[in-house]
């Protein structure tokens, strides 16, 4: 497995070329870019990013030896399952833009987020409309040849691995899979159990850590990698059982106590090295 970093981790004022240089210098193999609203950061893609701009971004990244591994977005916000047709149409346009960016930048897939409309609408309606939005893009996804991977986020939609697996299976597309976020389930479950349930559906992985307030369903907070309650050797062993050999992408944020960004990137890289080394020791 290789190390990647989501661009949200990077200082928002840092441009693409400098970001790629710093992330590579910190020891990462890849980076995940994001489609955001205009002005979100100096290294955000937007719905208006042109093909010419994408080619420049790719060239700047390749100059450092870094790989763009996937394209995420901050713009879903429940739109896939929205009762409003115009919001569902925006979600479709967002998937298309992410696929366009991924193809131009050499990434193998994108992250998208279904659900998130409860209690505005019934859960069953949210499920059906999110699925319908995805199904309407099936031929375009197949034509792209790129993964469209669904993430488990804190929007009340994927509250169990069985629900996530069922939704993916109902999408009935070999390129639709799971973008599994390890830290997002720790408050109420065990990530290694999710990985075993999702199995080969997992194409991409976000890593972050979470410290529980003692037990499951008692709250807690996100914390630095290797500082929480994630059993990393168990997580990596489960990923290997699932046949996963891709990038682990850190989706973490610099605490206010850390003054400089580059040393923070280095600390995240070292923590990921530790995670990978611990699993190797478990296997030895």
Question: Can you describe this structure?
Answer:
This protein is of the alpha/beta class and 284 residues long. It is built from nine helices and ten strands. The strands form two sheets. The chain has an eight-stranded parallel beta sheet. Helix 3 packs across helix 4 and helix 6 packs parallel to helix 7 (191-198). The radius of gyration is 18 Å and the shape is globular. It starts with a strand and ends with a helix.
List the helices and strands and how they pair.
Elements (H helix, E strand, L loop, with lengths): L1 E5 L9 H10 L4 E6 L15 H12 L4 E7 L11 H21 L3 E4 L10 H13 L2 H7 L2 E5 L9 H11 L4 E6 L9 H8 L3 E6 L1 E4 L7 E4 L8 H10 L5 E4 L10 H23 L1
Parallel strand pairs: 1-2, 1-10, 2-3, 4-5, 5-6, 6-7, 7-10
Antiparallel strand pairs: 8-9
Helix pairs in contact: 3-4, 6-7, 7-8, 8-9
Pfam families: AP_endonuc_2
GO molecular function: isomerase activity
Keywords: Isomerase
